[in-house]
């Protein structure tokens, strides 16, 4: 028999709250945390190299012939003649090396690099990356990497068992690359700068414009659109870097689109602050489906020459309703937070709660973007 639940005010239901959802409330945040400055960005670097010194966990030549070619070329450059020799090392692995070149990085400074195996190596633990050039998108060399690879994964093998934890075929070299070329960008001569909002919104952009103009002696910020605020530096006596240092720590209250994010794997539900619901009634009943397999073996007659043994499937499907379903009647002034608190009080599981929210969205009762991961 279904019960009818009229949700109580949120204050009365707080004691029944369980961590099945996470509310998101707007707060004062720094401008530097919600915008990017035009021209101030990272650049991706990539290179191909080899890792040596592995304890028999490297690439096999049969499956990774390019590893042998790379090693032969390296030895030739070092003055070792290996032409005609059959090299079959198992302590060498071919890898791709990736890194990010920070903005305003200078020649001689170091950056972290990530090393990933591209062959059939079992582990990079204990290996050393040999000098590897790192190229940018323009195919120019901006850094060179070399050093010992730190691997967090473990690959343990025995005669009849194997246990792998983490990713032993990838690793990190802290400060493993040294910058050899700088990216030309004269930040100090800029006469205007664009602040790009990471989450475009007209209200947030207007608040950024207001906060900047109120903090400076000479107003210079102008909202171009929902995602850009332009700074006019032509009449300022301060350098662009000094102006950015003055405004980047100003705080504003960003406004975001009403949004619900559901992670079905972990059962986590994240609610935006402005999620609203219309008048709606919800009926939710717990249905249990049980499937039982009882196969029967059919044997042929004794001394049969053409008969064979077969398995005949026998399946039984039982559908039952537990009877502890619920009906929720919601008024317009009830928020989604109130609804979820009430469902928590009924003991509804996070997966069932996600199904209810999805169905309400399909019915047009929830006014927010629904993102399911």
The fraction of residues assigned to DSSP E strands is 35-45%
Q: How would the global form be characterised?
A: flat
Helix content class = 10-25%
Number of strands: 27
Q: Count up the domains.
A: 3
Q: In whole angstroms, how far apart are the ends? A: 34 Å
Describe the protein in words:
It is a single chain. The protein is an alpha+beta fold and 373 residues long. It folds into three domains: 3-26 and 259-372, no CATH class; 43-179, no CATH class; 186-252, Alpha-Beta Plaits (2-Layer Sandwich), CATH 3.30.70. The protein contains six helices and 27 strands. The chain has helices at residues 10-13, 65-77, 202-215, 240-247, 336-345, 350-362; strands spanning 3-6, 21-23, 29-30, 35-37, 43-52, 92-101, 110-117, 128-135, 141-148, 154-157, 162-165, 170-179, 192-197, 221-225, 228-232, 251-252, 259-263, 268-271, 276-277, 280-284, 287-293, 296-298, 310-312, 315-321, 326-330, 366-367, 369-372.
Protein topology:
Layout: E1 3-6, H1 10-13, E2 21-23, E3 29-30, E4 35-37, E5 43-52, H2 65-77, E6 92-101, E7 110-117, E8 128-135, E9 141-148, E10 154-157, E11 162-165, E12 170-179, E13 192-197, H3 202-215, E14 221-225, E15 228-232, H4 240-247, E16 251-252, E17 259-263, E18 268-271, E19 276-277, E20 280-284, E21 287-293, E22 296-298, E23 310-312, E24 315-321, E25 326-330, H5 336-345, H6 350-362, E26 366-367, E27 369-372
